[in-house]
Amino acid sequence: MDEIDVIKSELRSSAELKLRLMDTHAAVIQKAADIIHGAVTKGSVLFLFGNGGSAADAQHIAAEFVNRFKIERRPLPALALSTDTSVITSIGNDYSFDDIFSKQIAALGRMGDIAMGISTSGNSPNVVNAFKAARDRGLFTIGLLGRDGGRARTMVDLAVIIDHPDTPRIQEAHITIGHVLCSIIDQRIKNDGT
To answer: Which domains does the chain have, with CATH numbers?
Structure first.
């Protein structure tokens, strides 16, 4: 297979997955948007977390909420838990890397907030532990998960599962869903002035 064929194959695979998600995931994405919109427009915080590319997605989505997405609107409260290197490294050093998100949730999370974890496997111990901490504190939990959803699928209030074997495709779907959520929330704020 030459490079042009590889390029076409990769783009086709990505597009086919997203087209399938239109039919299979629209309702669950709308439900996530309902919950997030209701929380952040009342001042509750959307906490986002994940590892590697999922950490980057968490930070990307948080930036869209705090700054803006497509419209001029007030900043919305969102925080990526993968950004404070002093907190992360002190927890990792003094306790365990498995606790880097759960300790932040325990410190900062309040009833009414939302914990959105992103994991292509659904089995990352630090993401799973964060969901446990969030549920213990009364936060609503949303998982952007991959493959079969892993252990996290039964630990969250709302699971958005990308059932696909290829990690890059799962990550592409997750960030697309993040953008769709931002778009829906922007539209609602524009329409109702919240």
So the answer is: 3-192 (3.40.50.10490)
